Amino acid sequence: MPLTQSEMTQQKIDLTRIEAQVNHCFDKADAFFGVRFKRSHSSFKQRGKAAGTAHLYKNELRFNHFMFEQNPDAFLNTVVPHEVAHIIVFQIYAANAKPHGKEWQAVMKKVFGLLPDRTHTFDVPPLKKAYSYYCLCQTHEFSQRRHNRVLKGVEYRCKKCASPLTRIEKHK
């Protein structure tokens, strides 16, 4: 469903807040390392379960607007530094550092003064069309994309019980 004019205006305001925090994080890193890092482009293109992603080779940060709206201050103070830290580490070490390795953790702690946490506590958006699968311990909801991968032969396993996930067929 397309955004209304009001929603588009609010997204622009929110993106301005994100960009200000991104620049603030880069300024902190510049001061800490004594160099000027190349600034990243930011957008609200992130979808699904991730709060944000750093596209290292594109020097691009993508953020999830659905999650930002839940708690903007928490998002700005945790997710934005998390993603900027990935870009900083990449600009220093190139592809030689692990995504949440010791270099990234050091940037989170020493530059941003944050615990290097890999997960968020934001609610994820509801799936537009969900497909139900089950394992030995619970049911799982799959997105259209993940369901299509199953149809092409990809097998998924439960992270808790390690059993394969099987589609719950809907009876007509």
TrEMBL record:
Residues 20-168 form the SprT-like domain. Pfam families: SprT-like. The keyword Cell wall biogenesis/degradation does not apply. InterPro entries: SprT-like_domain. Transmembrane segments: none annotated. SMART domains: SprT. Keywords: Hydrolase, Metalloprotease, Protease. The keyword Protease applies. GO terms for molecular function: metallopeptidase activity. One of its GO terms (biological process) is response to stress. This is SprT family zinc-dependent metalloprotease. It comes from Marinomonas hwangdonensis. The lineage of its organism: Bacteria, Pseudomonadati, Pseudomonadota, Gammaproteobacteria, Oceanospirillales.
